[in-house]
Amino acid sequence: MLENEYQAQNRTYNGSKTLVFIVGNSLSKSSCGWADTPGNLVIIHDLFNDGCNASTDNSETGISGAASTLIHELIHSYGINHQCFNSSDIMIGTPECAVDKETFGHVTTTIDSPRKHYVGSEASDGIDLLKMPVWSDTQSNTAYSQIKSISNNKFVPQLDDGTVYAVIEATSKKFDWEWEKDFSPEGNSISCQFTSGATVVVGKVEKSACTFAVPANLRAGKSFTVTENWNAGP
Ligand SMILES: [Zn+2]
To answer: How many A from CA of 73 to the centre of ligand 1?
Structure first.
């Protein structure tokens, strides 16, 4: 909803960039922020209180609570999940990890200091933060979505049988559904489109199927809608 509203007011927004919403007041007692993993939407909140933005954070951890939350959520948005290997790591989080409250927030914050998980390595989620195009791109479209199709990333879109069905810049495996019908239009009787935010792709019709050339700048984690219109009736 926030993204749709932003889109309505900023027509040139292409949907591949991360949107960050910053809210001073608390929206929830149990977190300091949220992000789609992967996705392009980040919210950080509760910046007026000690829980998420304590005045002692900087001296104890080397980074303010607000900045730490922002970085944590941005890294989620690139597809990286919570990491439990080190209680000082910026990606530690619940419910996956048992967070030691004595340590967490009171020692220098680290970002994969062993370089074995998500920085300089893709061992954790199939994603190496250092290889993401976010570091080199300044304004153009970017294939943020090129998360490896074969990885241990549970968020790669898969069918029930494990088939990865949406790989950017590759012909994806098909997904389809069936229903009882007495009418089976083909060819010119069909038109179809793929819509995700401002991205609209007109499908190529082959018999009764549609294929879509999904652009490389479509960010991983974005939802989409496919519609097929029947232009002829019985
Ligand atoms: Zn988190």
So the answer is: 6
In tens, the pLDDT along 38-61 reads 788 899 999 998 889 999 999 999
Closest by Cα among 70, 57, 74 to 109: 57
Q: How far apart are CA 65 and CA 144, in angstroms?
A: 27
What's the CA angle centered on 216, arms 41 and 176, to 5 degrees?
A: 90
SS3 220: coil
Instruction: Kindly give the distance from the C-alpha atom of residue 231 to the centroid of ligand 1, in angstroms, as a whole number.
Output: 47
How far, in Å, is the centroid of ligand 1 from the Cα of 70?
10
- The sheet with strand 33-35 has its strands ordered as 19-22, 41-44, 33-35
As given in the structure block, the two tokens for residue 188 are 């010119």
DSSP 198: T
Domain boundaries in the chain? Answer: 17-135, 145-234
pLDDT digits (tens, 9 = 90+) for 99-120: 888 888 899 999 999 999 999 9
Answer whether 106's CB lies under 8 Å from 66's CB.
no
pTM: 0.75
Beta pairing partners, 227:
193
> Rounded to the nearest whole angstrom, what is the distance from the C-alpha of residue 207 to the centroid of ligand 1?
45
